[in-house]
Amino acid sequence: MPRPLGRPRTTDLREVVNALLYIATTGCQWRMLPKDFPPCSTVQRYFYEWRALGLWAHINHHLVMEARELEGREASPTAGVIDSQSVKTTESGGIRGYDAGKKTKGRKRHIIVDTLGLMVGLMVHSADIQDRDGAPDLLKSIRHRWPWLLHVFADGGYSGDKLKRRLKKIGRFTVEIIKRSDKAKGFEVPPRHWVVERTFAWLGRCRGLARDVEKSIASAEAWVMIAHIRLMTRRLARYCYY
Question: Could you tell me which residue ranges the Insertion element IS402-like domain spans (predicted)?
Answer without folding.
Answer: 4-59
